[in-house]
TrEMBL record, chains A, B:
SUPFAM superfamilies, per database record: lambda repressor-like DNA-binding domains
Coiled-coil boundaries: none
Pfam families reported in the protein's UniProt record: HTH_3
All residue ranges annotated as the HTH cro/C1-type domain in the record: 16-70
Assigned GO CC terms: cytosol
UniProtKB keywords: DNA-binding
InterPro entries membership: Cro/C1-type_HTH, Lambda_DNA-bd_dom_sf, TransReg_Diox_bact_type
SMART domains registered for this protein in UniProt: HTH_XRE
Organism this protein belongs to: Salegentibacter salegens
Recorded GO MF terms: DNA binding; DNA-binding transcription factor activity
Source domain of life: Bacteria
Protein name: Helix-turn-helix domain-containing protein
Length: 80, 80
């Protein structure tokens, strides 16, 4: 796992956590709404999983946001 | 693999192909720009792979678009 990939997973994880908390939802609430378990969500929010496309869609649905909103953050993709 | 997941992978794949072709890039060009092989890109564009988060970022970089642009399509997520 490249260091940059890990950093971007962490950027994404913090963003998902922030969105979830802004909506007043717990990890249990998300787990109840989709097939992402509480344990998996915790690992994702800590930036320690290279999750799949369908997991991203499941999270977007559970958070009631469009998928692109989950990527509406600066991953510093073009500043390497 | 749920039928809806497959459909959304196909929606994504067509979108990536459209973006690539709009930029006049071949699958070989994309493969040369990032670690996604030509074979993998072809499978993704045909909607037959549940690819990872870091692959999505690699594709965005190779296509010179922000990651959220790759998800700026209607996945009919909330119309089930």
């Amino acid at each position: 796992m490249e260091e940059l990939d890990l950093k971007r997973q962490q950027i994404f994880g913090k963003h998902v956590k922030r969105l979830r908390e802004e909506k007043g939802l717990s990890q249990d609430d998300i787990a109840a709404r989709c097939r992402v378990t509480k344990g998996s969500l915790s690992v994702i929010e800590n930036g320690n999983r290279n999750f799949s496309f369908t997991t991203l869609l499941a999270l977007a649905k559970a958070l009631e946001v469009e998928p692109k909103t989950l990527l509406d953050i600066d991953f510093e993709l073009f500043s390497e």
